[in-house]
């Protein structure tokens, strides 16, 4: 059984099961409901059985907790045939406790304890034994007394003991010093993997809602995915969660046991978005007496802390909300809207939740609230509000316009599947060219991030041909996405239209709906970045012409964030790696303050490569980890592969022996239309082979970055592996073949390559050219002070010069 996101925990458990610990083979798993305790102990039991271990397993239940020795009977049931081998006094004590023999007089607890211990130790002498007790907090007290006596003693024999209990501290009856393993929420990346592992995983906004509401709880993820499957995209709390039986089974008894006024409060809290305690109580009309919350707190459903109501488990809120009839939930939302007079955003959202059809008043209120939220950088909340506003719009064109606004916000969130959903909704509602252009920008970007470059290109060209939009800002925004597709694809035909689109000066109207980078300097930077990405040979001159951004204010607007990203892109294409890193750091800090990375996700791989090239490897590790999480959560498919390739590359150049990129990474996207990813994979495979001493393999992989005639697989990235190719060629006697590639790269870059490429080419020429020119090229590869910016490349050039 493979458990997503629990590899470390599973390894620790198996150490106990297989006796790889120096102390007692005893472990208690703790965690809230749904964290995966049962799945882990079940997986451990399956592993033990496969290893010819006798597994004695008992899952205690509340119903049996009052029945004396019921749990012990279930645990020892497979050993009943062995009970007859015990000494008479021990056999009778155990049979009496288990109800097999009639009781004779007052039982002796010590005899029972010794009988269970003798039985287990005897069995363990002929076969390893694993005791597994799930939900030990429900073990009846008599059984628990026996278990407590036995488990420390047998854990020193060939017997492992694995317990699991709900909560964060050992339950009553289990010693506080028992070794424990606390299961927390899944990491974001693992949670996203679990969502995608479901039979029918949600997509778009519903997927992000599930991740947000489940808070990393595995059972919550599974149940909320099931709820979305049965109830559609609006099947989550706040939108009317469709009922799932398991949620009800977990919490209905505790909910029904609460007083009516407490149940009423719980429902209002479950229906709220982020309202404070006073607002919830005012809407529910129950006064200000906080004691009414006590039953719910005592039942472990909520905590009231610092004026807020916190649900103790993600599924509690869902269970509370879905247990109420639809008309009651509608009334609750209206009541909450009625008291939120000073919070237009919250009021609009509750009105929408109570709205059953189309209502322009509600739609307008949601749109207004979204504008307010956007000013605070709440792109996700704004996108949700705008999408709901579009759904409530009676007029199709209004709906299309609001969907377009939602799509712009979603692009700033960075979720391609949600963006694609909105794109399809816009195109179904309108033929307005400006709105279709906005939709194409979001739709093309989402397709590109999903690895579908040809489809993304077609979507963009559908609104650029035969005539581009009249709004120049829209054209620049479309060209920027087109450049991203052209770079990722590496296909020359995708680059051809860009220069013509950007040929005219960037003047014209700058409608705030059609272009987020509304300021002229941002548009200038974005235009220059698109031109640099289309023909990197122009990047140094474009970088000189674009004014360098000042150090941004902590709450700089989106236009400044966009300008920083664009400037960093130009610097990266110009091989000014230090400048690219500095600018991206500043941009990331601003995006982080807004809680999303938006289009900055496109810079994750360039930032990682710049950090690696400039020797900032510890920072590269942190960046790669964060980027991998973003890519997994938002299903940025080709970025996921890029990041994995760069991780392997970094490990390899550190001298670590790492495996080649996994087979699945070579097939997850069509590499023919994702040549940037293909090139990164080839470089990673080459680096891994070189780190293992396999220079034939390294040459074979790196050589694929170029065609037979030396033409690059990718017009920018391939050139930057030329020195690595030369090293592998030098080590394997293929210098003449590599020299032809070096000559082709030099010709492609023209008479004025960047400083970095000049150094790399001199290094490559020194290794693959004739002996007469080697010293000349080595000297040129090592003396230029600019090379100190790339310490590894400089060090390797000096090493090879010294070896020569």
From TrEMBL:
One of its GO terms (molecular function) is ATP binding. Residues 2-158 form the Orc1-like AAA ATPase domain. SUPFAM superfamilies: P-loop containing nucleoside triphosphate hydrolases, TPR-like. InterPro entries: AAA_16, P-loop_NTPase, TPR-like_helical_dom_sf. Pfam families: AAA_16. GO terms for cellular component: cytoplasm. Keywords: ATP-binding, Nucleotide-binding. This is Tetratricopeptide (TPR) repeat protein. It comes from Thermocatellispora tengchongensis.
